[in-house]
Amino acid sequence: MPSIFSYQSAEVDWCEGNFEHSEYIAEYYNTISNISFFILAPLILWLNSPYKDFRPLPVCSLALMEICIGIFSAYFHMTLSYAGQLLDELSILWGMSMCYAFWFPVRYFPGFIKNRDQFMWLVLLVTLFSTLMSFVRPALNAYALNCVAFHLLYLTVQELRQCNNSRVHHLAGLMVFWWAVSIGCWLGDKFLCSWCQQLGFCYLHSLWHVFINVTLLYCATLIIYFDVLYESPASEPQLMYWPGETSALALPYVAIRKPQKWC
Ligand SMILES: [Zn+2]
């Protein structure tokens, strides 16, 4: 029986041909495209440095989880090992859980939860249970991740219904657009591989790595904006773009116009 760390012991294999560019790296482009995670993490911290001064723990934890996801994803695509697959999926699950624990709006807490500390414990228990289940039934992990992603999308729609700020709607529209493009790349790589091979382009999964990071930048900006808006409305958060609104490479961030003491 092969070790869970041995090459190509994973349950999945992506469209890109294996060992085409290196004898040590199974999927070359799917591995190096993970560099986008290492770019995004410091970028979020740098763009949102005023927010980082207020609430350093959530945003620094998010950046750290991004780095972990990048490392485990690169390890997975490099080896296509079963251990790599588990670590990749579990790091995404823990990253999403961390976002829930820190940023889930208080007014959506279930009735039996009294404060954020209790909510964090609940999220920790559910995440630990899902982690254990993924060793028993690995296929369940993908369903858990999809459930969380769609729940987050549902919450975003709920928030947007109550918000009439056109800049927020514009940012959310861009996030959904890049999310759809990312999912399209992921599905295309998985289900249209023979068609991709005929076209001679088997790199849709590496594009998924890049575009999901673009999506995450919009998503993180939106989460940070709503966090400041609800937790400290007098701070007057505002959505801005670096280096400028009309720049071809306009990166979103949250400016805090009147910084207040955070409690
Ligand atoms: Zn991947």
Q: Please, could you describe this protein's structure?
A:
- 67% of the residues lie in helices and 5% in strands.
- With 263 residues, it is mainly α.
- It has one domain.
- A two-stranded antiparallel sheet has the order 1-2.
- Strand 1 (237-242) and strand 2 (251-256) form a beta hairpin.
- The longest helix is centred in the last third of the chain and has 28 residues, at 204-231.
- The protein starts with 27 loop residues before the first helix and ends in a 7-residue tail after the last strand.
- 31% of the residues are buried.
- Bound molecules: zinc ion.
- The site of zinc ion has 5 residues, from helix 4 and helix 10.
- This is Alkaline ceramidase.
- It comes from Phrynocephalus forsythii.
- Keywords: Calcium, Hydrolase, Lipid metabolism, Membrane, Metal-binding, Sphingolipid metabolism, Transmembrane, Transmembrane helix, Zinc.
Q: Regions with pLDDT < 50 over 5+ consecutive residues?
A: none
Distance between the termini: 55 Å
The proportion of strand residues reads: under 5%
Rg to the nearest angstrom? 19 Å
Distinct ligands, ions and cofactors found in the model: zinc ion
Strand order of the largest sheet: 1-2
Helix content: 55-70%
Question: Characteristics of this structure?
Answer:
10 helices, binds zinc ion, sphingolipid metabolism
